[in-house]
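During the reporting period the student researcher (J.K.) took over the structure-prediction task from the postdoctoral fellow and processed the backlog of single-chain submissions. One of the processed entries is reproduced below for the supervisory committee.
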Amino acid sequence: MASLQDQLLKAGLTTKQKARQANSDKRRKNKQKRSGVKVEASLQEQVKEDLAKTQAEKAAKDKALNEQKQQELAQKELQLRIKQILTHHSLKGIDGEIAYNYTAEGKIKKLMVDAVTQKALINGRLAICSQNENTYLVTTETAEKIATLDESVIVLNNDTVETDEVEEDDPYAEYQIPDDLMW
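J.K. obtained the following structure tokens:
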């Protein structure tokens, strides 16, 4: 009767090379048993090393996830802090008949204000902030405080201060720019 190995070879379930490898592994284990080397001890050590390696990888992955969650939480806290500042310090009762145009996110937007508010926006005393599609009108000091937290919230903060003073040698001093040329 043929051995199981021969039967597997005839059936095509294994190759000669795999059969030789199995025989050599079997001989090696028998020799280790006769010489007194414990195969089980080396397997246990290998299992312990694999377990320690797996635990270390899991700890590193957990630490990275925890840091990412902490960053997301800090970002959310910052956005809530900015929203609180904007809602608390935003100016109310500025609605008027004058359209003040400004650019936000590559689009021209319009804000209806009164004459005093328009002059303050032009002179740089007021700033426009936007967060989550909401527009807020705040003082320049508040806008500077918000800019330290997140500059992307500031939509418009003019630095120029317009004066009504006319230079003495200005040849066009007699010609005033009409108000309807505001864009």
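The committee noted the following: The first strand starts at residue 98 and ends at 104.
J.K. will present the remaining backlog at the next meeting.
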